[in-house]
Write the structure tokens for this entry.
Amino acid sequence: MSRIKARFAQLKQQNKKALIPFFTAGDPTPALTVPLMHTLAEAGADIIELGVPFSDPMADGPTIQRSSERALLHHVGLKDILGMVREFRKQNTTTPVVLMGYANPIEAMGYESFARQAQAAGVDGVLTVDYPPEECGEFLACLAQHALDPIFLLSPTSVDARVAAVAKAARGFVYYVSLKGVTGAANVDLAEVKARLTKLRKQISLPLGVGFGIRDGVMAKSMAEFADAVVIGSRIVQEIESAPADQVTARVGALVKSIRTAMDS
Amino acid sequence: MRAYDLPDARGHFGPYGGVFVAETLMQALEELKQAYEKYRFDPEFQAEFTYDLKHYVGRASPIYHAKRWSEHLDGARIYLKREDLNHTGAHKINNTIGQALLAKRMGKKRVIAETGAGQHGVATATVAARLGMECVVYMGSEDVKRQSPNVYRMKMLGATVVPVESGSKTLKDALNEAMRDWVTNVDSTFYIIGTVAGPHPYPMMVRDFQAVIGYEAKAQMPGLVGRQPDAIIACVGGGSNAMGIFYPYLEDKDVRLIGVEAAGLGLSTGKHAAPLNAGTPGVLHGNRTYLMQDENGQIIETHSISAGLDYPGVGPEHSWLKDSGRAEYVAVTDQEALDAFHNLCKFEGIIPALESSHALAYAAKIAPSLDRDQVLLVNLSGRGDKDINTVASLSGITL
């Protein structure tokens, strides 16, 4: 059983929902990435979503754009990030890791080479924002061959036919984008998200995560009432951005712990 | 042999093109594709488009024999397709009229655009004013500085110009920001992309709207020289003016098609904007195409004296035409383009855009080695009034 599947099964038994924090690898420095991953796991993260920085993050708001820029100042590439995951796996063999990013760094490495190295490093899933199911058949085959789960996005604009295409291609979980907009926007409508998830469950049997615009424990808890997983990105990146270098892990740990506590209460 | 019928139904030109965008935009692109398919061959739509091109833009644009310049170069005869004479001063308006008519039929009240040199921004603001639509133009803050006359033009036409501060602060970043706007306002907004790039159906749609350039040339050339030209030369940034003049000639195999990229300070310096000459394939801005990128797949900063060519990607159809060998792609430096700029002023009394000066420079490069019976047709895609500040400052003059 994949680590992602195992984690969701375990949560179901405990009657809990998954907390999925996101941050960009290499932000604020490459040396802090592995410690931050451990901090997240200890603070109650069920899955870690590790951002692969890209020069042109078209789907991201200003907060995550800046985190990409900070990481790229250190020339953090996909190869370095796989090294970080390998390092993380020396001490943690249970927390699933999902890489989230854009197509071009993967294109540059090559599908097969990427999938092989990602599996060897201990990556569990891959979310590529600009690979819709229609464009990534060959890539999906490589991921399947190396036991990596392709994670796909669905959005308020996804019609039934698109939901069906994603349902067919996705493994692990499906990530529902809670709003029309970029990451970190602030116009989430809870009732609307709830109605959409109820409808999506008719077509999708995988766990459904919700992300984009979730900012605190209260919101996370409300989302967790009807979602299987809650993704928090921009809020964590903001904490990384504003904390002094020697307090980054402590501040991020405290934030994630508070969200975990709220979700479980 | 099968006639050229690319792209396929999902927007692929061989391995290039396609739809590489976030899920939120997939449905919007599907709707756009369906709307375009509905109107592409609709006689009423085509009649309105043609009427506007004639009465509002001033088409057909003439073809002019640059006789003195040709004689000075002492070789092939050079003809210029005068897109610089269009309303707003460049070929860009052909496309914005087409897309705005489509937006109107789709019931969209707000249009957005990205712009580099500002020509596409001006052309978008122009059609938005005419149709009474709200218009927001994204422009890299570097470009806002070097193309200030166009920024003011857009504002006079009622558009909001948003300077983009992220990344390299040029055209590619303006495109990113326009995409983010579109994702956020997808219900109300039509995104008017200015070149033959972006996700399907944009590369095909923009090509079709710009193809009027090539169809006219094909009808005009026999009257001028008794036949079609030996070669057609056009500058390539995203590549819309080149695609527009090349497309009707794709099946005319004895007409050479030459695209000219910006070699900036020289291809060997790395400071250029020539992905077809010195890049590798990858995925950016919704399509697979040749890109300027590093070994990690990060897009690298480009350099060109011309803001309109300062883009790390290129329309996917050009990538296909390069690989298939149907078109040739070369590059000329900033200096070569500047020399051609000054020579066209001097010998013909025409101030060309710095973008188009790249095509002129390549014509000047090969003309002397060709016989006098050879005919070169250069797409003079825009006029250079917008560039006088740039050219003056290079000569140490402050206006």
